[in-house]
Amino acid sequence: MAAINSGSTKSNPKKANLLDPHFIKHILDESVTEIVTARRYNEDYVALHALWYLITYKKEKNAILITYPIEGSFSTGLVISSKLPRFSDMYTLTVASADPKSIAANKPVHLTKSVTKWFTRDGVLVESLFWQDVNKLIDEYRVNMAKNGMLIQRERLVDEVEIHFIYIVLRGAVLE
């Protein structure tokens, strides 16, 4: 799938103090939210506002965004999580299903990369590179989701064939 946007064309680039990992994570998380919502995933405001602290504390300590499914799709919403461990430059972004018990849920996908790949020496976020990496991760999740959907459809077809075969066998037994 082609990327929705290759990054921001704003005249005011996002700039971070490279010695402040909390601020770096905040800028990256904010950008992830922009990227995901640009791909037609709508934020689940009820979960974000009403239960935000409960969800983040109890269940998803690193969740930065919870979405509804894309309208008209056979999928669940997304939970986007991120980590930037203390004293590390390795940022990990995870895309997972908002409803992991759903038949449409997919296995989470991860991206771990040094933040130095997305920031200049002056602390300016190179949004086009970051957008590219996040879009690839979402595409990977969606490709896996499509493969999972095909497997589900194949399993349903096998089940239908088995049921039809059992029906024919039972019907033949009754006629004899």
Automatic annotation (TrEMBL):
Record's bilayer topology term: Multi-pass membrane protein
Entry superkingdom: Eukaryota
Molecular-function GO terms, alphabetical: peptidase activity
Principal location: endoplasmic reticulum
Record key words, sorted: Endoplasmic reticulum, Membrane, Transmembrane, Transmembrane helix
InterPro entries linked: Spc2/SPCS2 (IPR009582)
Keyword Transmembrane helix carried by entry: yes
GO cellular component: signal peptidase complex
GO-annotated biological processes: protein targeting to ER; signal peptide processing
Location in the cell: Endoplasmic reticulum membrane
Family, per entry: Belongs to the SPCS2 family.
Reported function: Component of the signal peptidase complex (SPC) which catalyzes the cleavage of N-terminal signal sequences from nascent proteins as they are translocated into the lumen of the endoplasmic reticulum. Enhances the enzymatic activity of SPC and facilitates the interactions between different components of the translocation site.
Protein name stated in the entry: Signal peptidase complex subunit 2
Organism: Aristolochia fimbriata (White veined hardy Dutchman's pipe vine)
